[in-house]
Design brief:
Bound molecules: flavin-adenine dinucleotide
Strand content: 5-15%
Distance between the termini: 32 Å
Radius of gyration: 18 Å
Order of helices and strands: HHHHEHEHEHEHEHEHEHEHH
Shape: globular
Length: 306
């Protein structure tokens, strides 16, 4: 869809990113999808999420960093998050992006940085999820994940696969042999048709196919979606295959379909909310608008409300 592609394109424009980040009125609309600028605000949001019966995953927003010094600051931020989780007793793990740790500068740097965070999480009995980004880094992300998974346990580090990618079913089969904990999502980037299914129906069919493979694997996975059809298919398949509610978790994004998050938690499903925070919110925020262009009206209305 043109609007979706246009919004994802805008999400990657550095000039707009700088403008938007400095433009004060944007701050109040970003709170729709972003928990705040600081760890403290994210912790506050997670306390509320936990009290609703859901767990969380921290995401410090800052993808595609360009200097090694910046990647070191990201590592320090994540070590601080892991320490804050222990101090505050909140129920949360962490999600990282490898471009945030230097994947586009030097994959070895990204590996070393991710390793530092996974090692600290493992020592604390916590878990690091490696988010999946654009298809230009899919293989590099999987390679680094496999290295880390070779050094750390199943419950220390996991990965994400995107059902819009044609390669994903094969990747899932391959990664399950390790075994690996996988989050399946639909995918949020602009991808060419030779790499990703252009039709929503194919993306959804592939989602269900991968979901069934994951649920039948006996490993604990994350089913990340706000799509009632994907959720219903998961519940139905689990019921039919005799897979218990605590053998997997649903995952949704902060601020999206909170009603559904609460309903699934009340129905006894494990529900994890992904909680982004930080001042580099622009690309994440634009991808959320791209998923549901109706959100643009929400933004415009609030920007000019005074
Ligand atoms: C926990 C979690 C982690 C994720 N991690 C990654 C990742 O690592 N890599 C990656 O590429 N993508 C990631 N995503 C994003 C994902 O790929 C999709 O872009 C996003 O979840 C929208 O797809 P959907 O499954 O909700 O279904 P869709 O078919 O897009 O949407 C289904 C319905 O959900 C609601 N909805 C969806 N998005 C929005 C929105 N922005 N605002 C309001 N309502 C909405 C609407 O009611 C919509 O009709 C993640 C998503 C989640 C939930």
């Amino acid at each position: 869809m043109v609007t979706r592609s246009a919004l994802i394109y805008l999400s990657q424009r550095e000039g707009l990113k700088d403008f938007a980040t400095r433009f004060r009125p944007f701050k109040k609309v970003t709170t729709r999808f972003v928990a705040g600028a600081s760890i403290d605000e994210a912790v506050e949001a997670i306390i509320r999420i936990n009290s609703d019966g859901c767990t969380a995953s921290f995401d410090h927003l800052n993808e595609s960093v360009t200097s090694p010094a910046e990647t070191e600051a990201e590592v320090r931020e994540y070590l601080q998050i892991l320490s804050r989780i222990d101090e505050s007793g909140i129920r949360s793990n962490v999600s990282i992006k490898l471009t945030q740790f230097g994947l586009e500068i030097d994959p070895e740097l990204a590996y070393r940085n991710a390793r530092t965070v996974v090692e600290d999480a493992a020592r604390r009995g916590n878990f690091v999820r490696i988010d999946m980004e654009g298809s230009n880094v899919t293989q590099k992300t999987i390679d680094i994940f496999k290295r880390l998974r070779g050094e750390f346990g199943l419950n220390d580090v996991g990965i994400v696969l995107q059902s819009y990618l044609r390669r994903t079913f094969d990747d899932a089969q391959d990664l399950l042999k390790l075994p690996a904990r996988i989050r399946i999502c639909k995918g949020a980037y602009n991808e060419p048709p030779d790499v990703a299914f252009p039709d929503k129906k194919d993306v959804d069919d592939n989602y269900v196919r991968v979901m069934k493979l994951l649920l039948s694997s006996g490993t604990y996975h994350g089913i990340a979606t706000h799509d009632p059809k994907m959720i219903a298919a998961t519940i139905k398949y689990a019921r039919e295959a005799g897979i218990s509610k605590d053998a997997f978790e649903f995952q949704m994004l902060f601020g999206i379909r909170r009603d559904l998050q609460l309903r699934l938690a009340r129905d006894g499903y494990n529900m994890r909310v992904y909680v982004p925070y930080g001042k580099h919110w622009y690309p994440y925020f634009m991808r959320r608008l791209a998923e549901r262009p109706a959100n643009i009206w929400f933004v415009l209305k609030n920007l000019f409300k005074g």
